[in-house]
Amino acid sequence: MLRESKRLETYALVANACTKSQAHMLSISKRETLEEQVTDELVKRGNPEVVTSVVSNSGAKISDFGFLNMIKRAEGDSIFAEQLGLRKDIPRHVFQQLIAKATSDVRKRLERERPDMARQIQSSVTELAGDLQSKFGPVSRSHFVAKRVVTTQHKLGNLNESSISTYARSHRVEEVTIGMSLLCSLPGDVVERALLDKNRETLLILCKTLDFSWDTTMALLFLGAKDHRITANDLRSLESDYCRLNIETSRSVLAFYQSRKSGTALDASMQAALYA
């Protein structure tokens, strides 16, 4: 019944996923179609067999939460990683994380099977590198002055959301970059990329991790936007995305980046940016 019944509504499937056995969840995962609310519970509570069934179900809608949790599941499981990468609805930022964490064999197969996604990512990396150079240029004396001031502020315990917000509203990019780098324990170039990428997900994740208000987050979004402008529709969409972000999930994503901050995997992962 859980697999075939057309009369079961989403709330009933969620209730069953929350209270029943793995066998019940496996049956639910094989339904012809599944809403995000259902797959969220299956991914969160299901065993590897259940989650693999969700990934292979083309009629299952998967949320950002679901994809991010599946990224964790893909570590050490090359078969699952490949199945996840072959989903047509996988967001670009998730595919990029998957590529960064995959074994070389899986990475090659995914790049071969998904040339559309691989080209998109490489194009984003190239374009973003050019944007960084044109906007920030080479490291200048002002950068070192800003670094000394912001670092001192951090050591005194005075670097916080209020100071980041003030810097952002004053269009002080270097101070924002250095400050966010210190607060998030990430390299400055990673923060620069997050500020400038057209896909604003990384920046939203960093702000959510720091538990910033929407007003501060909005100031940072405007700072990195072209000509410091964002349309009203885009802003509403970004606010909706930010509100939907789970703080604990965001922090787990940040922890992954922090663990690789001195390696090429992080750079590759962040250059195409996160969060969508």
What topology does this entry show?
Layout: H1 10-19, H2 22-29, H3 36-45, H4 48-56, H5 64-74, H6 78-85, H7 92-101, H8 104-113, H9 115-136, H10 141-155, H11 161-169, H12 173-184, H13 188-196, H14 201-209, H15 214-224, H16 232-244, H17 247-259, H18 264-271
Helix pairs in contact: 1-3, 2-4, 3-5, 5-6, 6-8, 7-18, 10-12, 11-12, 11-15, 12-13, 14-17
List keywords for this structure.
mainly alpha, 276 residues
Account of the 3D structure:
This protein has 276 residues and is mainly alpha-helical. Helix content is 71%, strand content 0%. The chain has helices at residues 10-19, 22-29, 36-45, 48-56, 64-74, 78-85, 92-101, 104-113, 115-136, 141-155, 161-169, 173-184, 188-196, 201-209, 214-224, 232-244, 247-259, 264-271. The chain is elongated, with a radius of gyration of 20 Å. It starts with 9 loop residues before the first helix and ends in a 5-residue tail after the last helix.
* Rg: 20 Å
Coarse morphology:
elongated
SS class: mainly alpha
**Contiguous uncertain segments of 5+ residues:** 261-276
Q: SSE order, as H and E?
A: HHHHHHHHHHHHHHHHHH
* Proportion of residues in extended strands: under 5%
Distance between the termini: 35 Å
Global mean pLDDT: 80
- Please tally the β strands and state the result: 0
The multimeric state of the shown protein is: single chain
With helices defined by DSSP (H or I, 4 residues minimum), what is the helix count? Answer: 18
Estimated helix fraction? over 70%
Q: What's the main sheet like? A: none
